[in-house]
Design goal:
alpha/beta; binds oxa(dethia)-CoA; five-stranded mixed sheet; 10 helices
Length: 325
């Protein structure tokens, strides 16, 4: 038995933050951002008091509508996020409340940009256990709430979005394999320093701007460029897939140059690669399901899809999906 994705829902906020607008905020320009990263614009959630659960609920609403599923039918909701509305309760429980999901248990997964892969693997095993029939795997991130819009090194990179998939049992389609790794060596290079239990919020942490994403881009790039490509290659190899067997490659959308390296390593033609970094930037854990949502119409039943991600921790992984509809 496999856990098949039987629907995708998504939500992106209306507000478009362009490279032109960013270049009025910090010393940057469209040419640098496009050539070094490949982002043209990103979406930003505006509105007092709106957090990740606002977008997550919208993605779930669309998913339930598209799959003609009643919220009471959902057994489990897993939410991948690094930007929950509050440290507690979980973003998953807030999304459940907003969408009428009353008969499920719900919890968050924190694995940064690999969050969707971790949540997908987790949800898949709940389906495989035979105990649960309808599992929602959601990813939602309001990255703009932790981005320092005075720091040109990080502010062009991230965007806000949410996307969710429904998992149901299938004998032929679904998550065929996944491989995920963690190496805590990544902490100094990519983190949000304060606001947790080690360094709770204080006047000093606010003054020192320690509540924003900190990234040493070059170091992260080096790890990402090899690890994401290698792990995708490993999943492809251990499932005896040849390049021509792969219908779609869906990489994490952090940097077009990292995507290019992975594409070269696994040797798939560019027309089979899903890319939307230009429109949405890096939406962290939402990146992969947002690609599925964006390209859903291009997928066909039985398509072999390889997902790959890399993010803070470090955490990275790859998954092999057989598309179910
Ligand atoms: O999703 C989670 C995992 N994250 C990633 O995978 C991100 C991995 N890292 C990257 O994608 C890239 O390292 C970045 C896009 C973050 C940065 O690109 P880079 O080519 O590594 O640039 P850099 O940080 O080495 O900076 C090169 C130059 C520097 O100037 P100098 O020192 O050479 O004079 C920076 O100050 O570019 C400058 N720079 C900028 N210039 C214009 C940095 N940011 C900007 C900017 N606009 N926004």
């Amino acid at each position: 038995m496999y856990a098949a994705i039987t629907g995708v829902g998504g939500y992106v906020p209306d507000y478009i933050l362009t490279n032109e607008e960013l270049s009025q905020m910090v010393d940057t320009n469209d040419e640098w951002i496009m050539s070094r990263v490949g982002i043209k614009e990103r979406r930003i959630l505006k509105g007092e008091g709106l957090g990740a659960s606002y977008m997550g609920a919208k993605a779930i609403d669309e998913l339930l509508k598209k799959t003609e599923t009643k919220p009471e039918e959902i057994d489990l909701l897993i939410c991948a996020t690094t930007t929950p509305d509050h440290p507690f309760p979980s973003c998953a429980s807030m999304c459940a409340e907003k969408t009428g999901i009353k008969n499920a248990f719900a919890f968050d997964v924190a694995a940064a940009c690999s969050g969707f892969l971790v949540a997908l693997e987790t949800g898949s095993n709940f389906i495989k256990s035979g105990k649960y029939k309808k599992v929602i795997v959601l990813a939602t991130e309001k990255m703009s709430s932790i981005v320092d819009y005075t720091d040109r090194n990080t502010c062009p990179l991230f965007g806000d979005a949410a996307a969710a998939v429904l998992l149901e049992p299938s004998e032929d389609y679904g998550l065929m394999d996944s491989l995920i790794k963690t190496d805590g060596v990544g902490f100094p290079f990519l983190n949000l320093h304060a606001g947790g239990s080690a360094f709770p919020a204080s006047e000093e942490t606010v003054k020192n701007r320690q509540h924003f994403v900190y990234q040493e881009g070059k170091h992260v790039f080096k790890f990402a460029v090899t690890n994401m490509a290698d792990i995708a290659a490993e999943v492809i190899e251990r499932n005896s897939l040849k390049s021509e067997d792969i219908n779609w490659f869906v990489p994490h959308q952090a940097n077009l140059r990292i995507i290019d390296a992975a594409v070269n390593r696994i040797n798939v033609p560019y027309e089979k690669v899903v890319i939307n970094i230009d429109k949405f930037g890096n939406t962290s854990g939402v990146s992969l399901p947002l690609c599925l949502w964006d390209c859903e119409k291009r997928f066909k039943k039985g398509d072999n899809i390889i997902l790959a991600a890399f993010g803070a921790g470090f955490t990275w992984g790859s998954a092999y999906l057989k598309w179910a509809y």
